[in-house]
Amino acid sequence: MKGRVENPPAKTVVRVELIYSQRQVEDSADTTLENTSFTIKVPFYTQSRGPVIGFFEKCSRKPKTVTVRLLQGDEEHDSKTFDVGKDFDSPFPNAYTLRSPLVLKGNDHQ
Q1: Does some domain include residue 89?
Q2: Structure-model confidence comparison of residues 48 and 90, the more confident one
Q3: What is the pTM of this model?
Q4: How many CA within 13 A on the CB side of residue 52?
Q5: Which residues on adjacent β-strands are paired with residue 104?
Q6: What are the backbone dihedrals phi and psi of residue 80, each rounded to the nearest 5 degrees, phi first?
Q7: Contact 84, 95 (CB under 8 A)
Q8: Where in the sequence is the domain holding 25, given as residue range(s)?
Q9: Domain contains 30
Q10: Residue 32: closest CA among 9, 66, 52, 53
Q11: How many structural domains compose the chain?
Q12: Strands (DSSP E) along 1-110, which ranges?
């Protein structure tokens, strides 16, 4: 996931959270800004861990929504939530790309 932050506060972190069917965050990752931009990957697995009687058991484990949060310590400055089925393209299995530009907003004052 790529994006940028307008008016970023000092020492901010961008957190991406993958939310599954039980509305629980199961996978997440944090990154810091490079100037006002960020790039972050959050790996997740859609298959079970091993073979079952010679076959790989498949499951449909995939996130339903993705939340991107702009944090400064415990304070949240902005967040955006996206529907995986509507807001992302999937050019490869387990690889999703946001269809529109992602812009988070930090402080209005500097």
Answers
A1: yes
A2: 90
A3: 0.81
A4: 7
A5: 5
A6: -135, 140
A7: no
A8: 2-104
A9: yes
A10: 9
A11: 1
A12: 2-6, 13-19, 25-32, 37-39, 47-52, 55-58, 65-72, 75-83, 88-92, 95-98, 103-105
